[in-house]
Write a structure and sequence with these properties.
Length: 260
């Protein structure tokens, strides 16, 4: 379905980003990966799906590096047809104790990076399809873009902002073939969430299994994690013809979290 399209997924060397990148690759999209940690493994996993793969190690907290990444993607594949703004970090603390440098980093990576990548991707998207435009911008927000939790002030602020950016981007391009939507997962067992499970286990003297049950039980009625694969299939839907008029939504996959 996406053969001939090119996707850039930030924060895609593991977790949700890699799951989305692989789902898009299964539909034929070439992929630009971005992120830290192991690169060869994820690149090989995506390449095994029969598409072209490139990697750029931009630190998305830095606008100049995002600009270099977008230029790299254009030089490698011609343009970015599908932009997935997924990169994110977390820090947990009460507002009065929240380290200023962590606030700045979370806002930069979880929110500002999506603005910078979007503004740089839009001109080429608008120039496609004989000037009618075609593009898909998918912002990986969070259930915390819809509701709040204590001790996550920067993360909740950034994700609420990302949902707002999604709506504005969708409205500004509503008469074109460019759509923008947000995915709002609940608990997904990524390395980021595993750290929270480990911290809860250590703080309360629980086993990892017990801490996992406690974490899910606090918020998620389904008592199960959403998987990166499920999130990837939602991204594919947004990119499909069925998603042509889905614009500006914040689509929660949260096991009933926000239904309460």
């Amino acid at each position: 379905m996406l053969k001939g399209k090119n996707a850039l997924v930030t924060g895609s060397t593991s977790g949700i980003g890699l799951g989305i990148a692989k789902a898009l690759a299964r539909q034929g999209a070439n992929i630009v990966l971005n992120g830290f940690g192991d690169v060869e493994g994820p690149s090989a996993e995506v390449a095994a799906l029969g598409v072209q793969v490139a990697y750029h190690g931009a630190d998305v907290s830095k606008p100049a590096e995002i600009e270099d990444m977008m230029k790299f993607a254009a030089s490698r594949f011609g343009r970015v047809d599908i932009l997935v703004n997924n990169a994110g970090i977390q820090h947990v603390a009460r507002i009065e104790n929240f380290p200023l440098e962590r606030w700045d980093a979370i806002i930069a990576i979880n929110l500002s990076s999506a603005f910078h990548a979007t503004r740089l991707a839009l001109p080429a998207m608008k120039a496609t399809d004989n000037g009618k435009g075609w593009g898909r911008i998918i912002n990986v927000a969070s259930v915390h873009g819809l509701v709040a939790s204590a001790e996550k002030s920067a993360y909740v602020t950034a994700k609420h902002g990302l949902v707002g950016l999604t709506k504005v981007t969708a409205l500004e391009n509503a008469t074109t073939g460019i759509t923008c939507n947000a995915i709002c997962p609940g608990w997904v067992l990524t390395p980021l969430v595993q750290k929270q499970v480990d911290a809860k286990a250590a703080a309360l003297g629980l086993s990892n299994v017990e801490a996992t049950k406690l974490l899910l039980g606090e918020k998620e009625p389904s008592q199960q994690f959403t998987t990166p694969e499920e999130l990837g299939e939602l991204a594919v839907f947004f990119c499909s013809p069925a998603g042509n008029n889905v614009r500006g939504v914040a689509w929660n996959m949260d096991g009933g979290w926000t239904a309460q």
